[in-house]
Structures are given as C-alpha cells and as structure tokens.
C-alpha cells in the first residue's frame, strides 16, 4: 500500500513548494518508497481534522498518521529499517536535528526575503490573504517592506559558509551519498526553485554544484518537480 | 603512558587559549585520558620539526604523532574505542565535521572581532609581532580596524540561532551528554573565556546555560582552566 501525504499546493495543483513537505518527499524517495501526495491549501484546515495538527506535511501509512517533517523522517527509519538510513543512530540523529535548525533559523529567512513576492504569486489565490496575514504578523512588517533580494542574498551568502566548508571535504553533507542532513537543508532550495527563477547562489559556488547533485539524486525527484515557470501564464518575473 | 600534546600558551605558561587545542583537550578529557600539555609559543616552530606540521595541537601517543584537531578526535576514537565515543560511525562523523566548519566559519570571526585586543594582550610578548602580522594579512586590515565588540556580538548573536534551536530540544548538541559536536563548538568559548572577561551571550540565553554545563563537564576541565584574570597584573580591561 502506497504512502499518502498531504502536500501544500499553489496556484496550480501540480505546483508543490513547501520546504517542510519537500523534506518528507525527499526522504520518502531516499527510502525508495512511493507516495500519493494529495494537494492541500493553507485554508483547507478541515481536511486535516482527522489529525491533531493543522499544518502539512501529514503522512498516512496504513493506520499510522505522522505529523511534523522531522518526525516523518524518524518514522520512516523506524518503519522501514531495511531501506537506506536517513537519520541513523541516536548520536547521528541528534546531529541531524541541528540541520533542521540551521535550515529554519539561518537559511529560510534570507531565502524568504529574496523570493517572498514570487512566493506570494505562486500561492493559490484563495490562500493569499491567509499567507499575508500570518507572515506579516510573524515578520512584524508588510511583505513588501520585508522583501529585499539584495539583503536576502547577502545574508544567505554568509549563512552558507559552514556548508561550503563541509562540501570542500565531501560531495554531500552526509558523506559520499545524501542523507537526512542533506534533505533537511536542500528542501529550502526546492522551495525557492518551485516558486522563483532567482539564482540564490552563483554557479561557481560549491553549494551550486551540491544543489545540482541533489536535484539529480533518487531518480531526479527534485529536478523533475514542476516549477512556476512550467505553468503557462503563472510566472510574472 | 600519558599522552603528550603541544599546547599554545600565552603571557603565562599556565594560560592556554587556542580553540583548536581546546578541542583536543576536551576530547581527551571526554575519553577519560590524561595528557601532559606542553607549553608552546607561535614562534617556536623548531619545536615541531619532528612533525610535518607547524601548528598546534600536536598529539603524541607513544610512536604516533597526530596533527590537526579533527584528526586528533578521529585518532582518539580509533585508538581508544572502549572509552566513550566522540565522533561515532561514518554518518555521525560526517555530520560532526559540519560543526568544525560552523565553528570556524560562523562563530570564530565574530568572537575574534569582539576579543581581539584582549587576545593580543594575552599572547606571549615574543609572539605578538607574529600574531599581528599573520592575522592582519588574513583579515586585510589592522587588528584595531577589525576590533568591534558591537559588530562582533551582533554577528555572533545571529550565528548562534541554530544552536539555540538545538538546545531547545536537548541539553547538549549531541543529546543527553556532550560529544564531539559540543566540544568542536564549545572550544571557541574556552578561547574567549581564557583571554577575556567579555560576556559573549546574555545569561538568559540558552547558549549561556549550555556553556555552564560544558564548563562543568568531565570534572570541570573547562571551569578549572586558568584565565587571564587569574594571572596577577596580566589583565587590563
């Protein structure tokens, strides 16, 4: 029985951009599993009433319902131990958790600052008020005031320094092959790539080469995902 | 037979501040081993001629000579597998390496910017020209131009965000007990603490509580280390 996952969609049902959902989808691909990723909009809270959570991803595996992207990674290792490891043992898992925080607290804000207006444009029209209201409250300013590709790219450039160091020693954060740490960080770049054509890193950056490798990993699940520029009439640069 | 290590010393032989040496000393303490930490000055390159390296730490264990702090951690796990693990298996080790880069590329520069004049004052007088010349070349400006506690503390505050996230979930980076990731990061705070009385984080910061736990770990090897303010006449605030 295939896994089922509620997955945020945008202006088109095929446009799936949530970085948290991408963590789960990349992890599922790493495990060699299939998933039916059902489209879900921010304002369709009633569709998630069967769980105690109001955000995606939500993973359903038979009788099991798992919420929170990091918990989904842990579940996949527990339920499918014979498939390639994501998090590893307790020590490796504890260190993997740092990459969740590195992604959320060092990388997401500079990326958002860069792509926020593209993101707004990619969101389903019925979700835009919800998105604007919740994000402006969190940011303490309007999206237009927050939007600054110049500042965002400069902050992102600094925040990527430790990653550059890591990639000077191995092809992936987790060594010779991608693992949970790679997916936790790379999901942010899938988010940006889905909704925007902005170049977040220069093509001479070791992070760029890593993104290219990650796009091709696991049968190109990243590379083959729909982007806003694939949807006729949806992209206004 | 006890381990021997060449360890950078400052204005007094008892003042040991190198963050790279602290990584090794904290790791040795974690393993429950004893070490004779021999004082070494930046300009005493001839004392390291028996190795192919001109920087400390250099660890000597019988016939083995190990240079580079991360390699010393790897060596300790290999040579003393029965003692508590530092790095763990390949996946855990790969992730631990990220903390080396996080320390060196995200934390050390803001800390240096904050404490550089204190550091200069703590360095052995015969080493000061060497230190100034090599660091000014690397920084592209004079130490006085680089020195800015206001900028340094602000940059450090941002750079610590992922660590704050991590410490919201566990007492140590590596979980319930400190491990290699903790030592790789904490060594920077031993560096600052040895040469300066500057408060790098506020006492309400979860990073502050973690520093306190780290100071007490392994019999208080961090807490008991000599600080510049312990040396009569050496500290000029």
From TrEMBL, chains A, B:
The segment(s) forming the GST N-terminal domain are: 8-84
The record ties this protein, via Gene3D superfamilies, to:
1.20.1050.10, Glutaredoxin
Q: Which domain of life is it from?
A: Bacteria
GO BP terms, alphabetized: glutathione metabolic process; L-phenylalanine catabolic process
Q: Which GO terms describe its molecular function?
A: glutathione transferase activity; maleylacetoacetate isomerase activity
* Any single Pfam family the record assigns to this protein: GST_C_7
List where this protein forms a coiled coil: none
Q: What protein name does the entry list?
A: Glutathione S-transferase N-terminal domain-containing protein
Q: Give the originating organism.
A: Halomonas sp. RT37
